[in-house]
Design the sequence.
């Protein structure tokens, strides 16, 4: 053995060790991964093509039922204003825009400039999103103003007309 080591030298011994490590890696890691790959290919070949399944009619109907709250846009806006007054934020004039979609859902976009302290703004958003289930916050930009924060909130009411 000593004679073989002397004959091939340190680099030859390192090469033999690397071959042994490569063989062990192949049998312990590569072979199980190849077997797993084949199982996944078989599973995918048995599934129908065309991507994800379309949502069932029951699920879509449930979404429409959830969004159809029986309240008008003015009711939601009045509640939003009441939440603003209760949380202490100063509501300024807002802009409103209706966006129709291909589905039955109508989006009522609101750009709402407000001012107040950070806790007041957080309370307003927390309460508005909790009390108005069809409301979503699209974006908010906050700037430091004179003694209070100035924020512009972009909100959307998602509704299904009755």
Sequence:
């Amino acid at each position: 053995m000593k004679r073989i080591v002397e004959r091939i030298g340190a680099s030859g011994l390192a090469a033999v060790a690397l071959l042994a490590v490569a063989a062990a890696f192949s049998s312990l890691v590569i072979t199980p991964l190849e077997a797993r790959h084949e199982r996944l290919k078989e599973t995918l070949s048995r599934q129908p093509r065309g991507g994800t399944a379309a949502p069932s009619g029951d699920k879509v109907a449930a979404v429409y039922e959830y969004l159809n709250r029986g309240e008008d846009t003015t009711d939601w806006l009045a509640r939003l204003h009441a939440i603003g007054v209760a949380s202490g934020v100063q509501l300024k004039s807002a802009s409103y825009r209706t966006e129709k979609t291909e589905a039955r859902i109508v989006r009522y976009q609101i750009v709402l400039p407000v001012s107040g302290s950070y806790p007041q703004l957080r309370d307003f958003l927390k309460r508005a999103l909790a009390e108005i289930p069809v409301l979503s916050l699209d974006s908010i930009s906050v700037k430091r103003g004179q003694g209070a924060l100035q924020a512009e909130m972009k909100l959307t009411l998602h509704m299904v007309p009755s």
